[in-house]
Specification:
Helix content is about 80%, strand content about 0%. It has about 450 residues and is mainly alpha-helical. It has a single domain, classed as Up-down Bundle (Growth Hormone, Chain: A), CATH 1.20.1250.
Length: about 450
């Protein structure tokens, strides 16, 4: 390892952010429109979709830590993480296309097809994105640079979400010419194919500059135990999981709220991307806000903003377009905490390495992916169960009872989840001024001594 790492340049920040933009070309398509595709185009009931997503994410809960252990035991001249991004990206493209394909057969075989393609998509996403999320921990040992990398990937995410929400429905309509199945399929092909060179650019240009010796990694069982024993890491993972439960659960079914509660079709596309627009505007200020408040306080503030705005949205008039606009703008301000979860995880990994001499960053970030997927599964499944319990299915005549269920699912349920997410943040203990500076100074000395 180099004794002194050169500062990262614009190229590294831009290309790393491009990776999350590429992810959204597949994953926003899935996270935002797959539930609607399954219920209104593919022909599944909300309960069937809910069970499908839950089962798929349980499997993801198994293969994410497996991916982490594989990464930690990979040592190539290209690094531990980048080879998997290169290999996983084409698989992600393939399964995105297959997931948005309506097969020519029906009945139970059609449901099996949905299970196979969606589970395959989740596994391809794991192979690509677990190593992608772990890259900042090995690209720099400067916390300011790490914050900037995390902000760059969050910028990539929000810009990608804006682009997708702005273009997907018009593309489906334009390409499909009234045939929604053809529209979804062709749009998935187009967006997934665009993502491939972006992922490969990340694999080629985001160099891994911090190495971990094989003998310092311990066994797989020890790695699992170390994750469980690292209280601050567990708190960071729980925060990420709870945050994703609220955020991704809402994203997956928000379109139902705009279609059937607000019922102003002129603004559906704008509503779908409003919080992302605000998030993109505030994201460049995130590193400065975090430097001022710290990761913990910034994340708590975000949860209060997001939970509070959705609570007001639930009780407010859905038919008032200006009211919905304002509340979505306030909700979007919560994106200011975008980098916090990953930075808190890196701090917890560094702190544990300083204390015990073992660094299990691959497995730790696989648990972040696991937390995200569990959060997504819980959010998607519960939200779909709620609207199904209130009587919604594709083509049903809309009633006030169903509208209330959709409003409850899209706004009140995520609001409660966000407030619960404050609990693990209050238990996180690494945000004391100057503490992590000492940790990193000691780690730098140990690594320099080991490199001699």
């Amino acid at each position: 390892m180099e004794k002194a790492l050169k500062p990262l340049g614009f190229k590294e920040y831009f290309v790393y952010g491009l990776g999350n933009f590429a992810s959204q070309l597949s994953w926003t398509m899935v996270g935002t429109y797959l539930s609607l595709f399954y219920t209104d185009v593919f022909g599944l009931t909300p309960m069937a979709v809910s069970l499908l997503m839950l089962v798929a994410k349980v499997w993801d809960g198994i293969n994410d830590p497996m991916m982490g252990t594989i990464m930690e035991r990979t040592h190539t001249k290209w690094g531990r993480f980048r080879p998997y991004i290169f290999v996983g990206a084409p698989l992600l493209v393939l399964f995105t296309i297959l997931t948005f394909t309506v097969p020519d057969f029906g009945g139970s075989a059609k449901l099996v097809y949905a299970y196979v393609t969606y589970i395959g998509l989740g596994m391809a996403y794991t192979v690509t994105n677990v190593p992608y999320l772990a890259l900042p921990a090995v690209m720099s040992n400067d916390p300011k640079e790490t914050n900037r990398l995390m902000s760059a990937q969050m910028m990539g995410m929000t810009i990608g979400q804006i682009l997708l929400n702005l273009t997907v429905l018009p593309l489906i309509e334009y390409i499909g010419k009234g045939d929604q199945a053809a529209g979804y399929h062709s749009t998935a092909i187009l967006l997934a194919a665009i993502s491939l060179p972006m992922f490969w650019a990340v694999a080629a240009l985001c160099k891994e500059r911090i190495t971990v010796k094989k003998e310092n990694q311990g066994s797989i069982i020890e790695g699992l135990k170390l994750v469980a024993k690292n209280r601050n890491l567990v708190c960071a993972i729980l925060y990420a999981m709870i945050n994703m439960t609220g955020m991704l659960g809402r994203i997956a079914i928000a379109v139902y709220y705009y279609l059937y509660c607000v019922q102003d079709f002129r603004f559906i596309t704008v509503f779908m991307m409003m919080q992302m627009i605000v998030g993109t505007i505030v994201m460049p200020f995130a590193p400065k806000v975090i430097e001022k408040l710290g990761n913990q306080k910034t994340a708590i503030l975000s949860m209060i903003i997001q939970g509070g705005s959705l609570l007001i949205l639930f009780f407010g008039p859905a038919s008032s377009v200006p009211f919905v606009f304002v509340m979505l703008i306030i909700y979007g301000l919560g994106y200011i905490a975008g980098p916090c979860g990953s930075v808190m995880m890196i701090d917890a990994i560094d702190d544990y390495e300083d204390k015990y001499g073992i660094r299990n960053d691959g497995m730790a970030f696989s648990f972040q992916g696991l937390g995200t997927k569990i959060g997504s599964a819980i959010g998607n499944s519960v939200c779909l169960m709620i609207i199904g319990a209130f009587g919604y299915y594709g083509g049903v005549e809309m009633t006030e009872h169903i509208q209330f269920g959709i409003n409850f699912s899209v706004n009140l349920f995520p609001a409660i989840i966000y407030f619960i997410g404050i609990i693990p943040l209050l238990l996180y203990k690494l945000d004391k001024p100057g503490y992590m500076d000492g940790v990193r100074a000691r780690l730098a000395q140990k690594r320099e001594a080991a490199g001699k």
